[in-house]
């Protein structure tokens, strides 16, 4: 019997023993194409010698020094590098170990900021339905995924949820995409006014929604309108780029494509590319200075903040993105993947939408295309798809929105940035095998 507490107890997963490029291998020697980079993590692929070398060098030099006493060269350099590319006035970086920690840090920082500037009455967080911001209690409360929240509702903090920007499902036929975006953004202003115009701390959103909707970008103008609303009421905009950031959508920061800069930005996943667990929260000096001038320190912290080996790994990852010109490649290969998906599945009776940006792509399954009717929860489409794809040797990320108010099933693709043209065909072939088996 395995003593590892499994993620899902439905069946014993195979033991992964090796990774190379875009492939993973289990102990029986079966090869899997890592079509979702795990969960949009492995952006460089597996077994990258430069990253491995950086880990070894840093571990030999300095593996750990508690940030209550020390800073370290890799943390300093990584912060400088991130800030040199960061949008707007973001110029401080708080390193954590993953996405949920980045979101928790952002929520607490936002609340503490308003205490420091004498606005203790601000106590509400607003986020969006069908969002995912992590599994720790604050991040879980912020997320709008009903299924993930259900068991913990009684112990979750109170967060308001407004509409996501989900054009395929929600845009009316008499509305332009732009008007649709303005209409759903208006829900934020309405909610701020309902709660009290000086009582909201922050609005939290993913620029391109990953886990709960399957690579859904907002329509043009939506985030600009969100930014205006936040500014009008002094509400902080927290963008969660844990999944869609670090080059995944063809820009180092996903919000660059929106022309909008947040007050606080959360990143993780691709930051460590799966070689080390690391996340970060970036904030502006306005926020940082208010805290330094006030109580003097952010009342938060974890043991592994700014871990030197994790930071050195991320430095090597960012260097690889730049030296190997990978972000333009994400845009190029992303377009090819999109075209290949459309060629193969564009007319499929049970695939209603193909969408995404860069190498962050999704397909939504429907019972019928015209009515966009989702499958029933009992059809179990996402779970069956995951199994069929895995059997065909493809790791992808199917999620069932049917658990979230019967909103549909989708599959998310987030392959390594090194994916070749032939490998795009390989992914689409394997997807087709799974599609044929399931819908
Ligand atoms: N935020 C977003 C947008 C995510 O997609 C995730 C994970 O999928 C998280 C936060 C939580 O990250 P982690 O699983 O590293 O805690």
From TrEMBL:
Required cofactor(s): pyridoxal 5'-phosphate
GO molecular function terms attached to this record: pyridoxal phosphate binding; transaminase activity
CDD domains, alphabetized: OAT_like
Entries under InterPro entries matching the protein: Aminotrans_3 (IPR005814), Aminotrans_3_PPA_site (IPR049704), PyrdxlP-dep_Trfase (IPR015424), PyrdxlP-dep_Trfase_major (IPR015421), PyrdxlP-dep_Trfase_small (IPR015422)
Keywords from the UniProt entry: Aminotransferase, Pyridoxal phosphate, Transferase
GO CC entries: cytosol
Family of this protein: Belongs to the class-III pyridoxal-phosphate-dependent aminotransferase family.
NCBIfam families tied to this protein: PRK07483.1 (NF005685)
Protein name: Aminotransferase
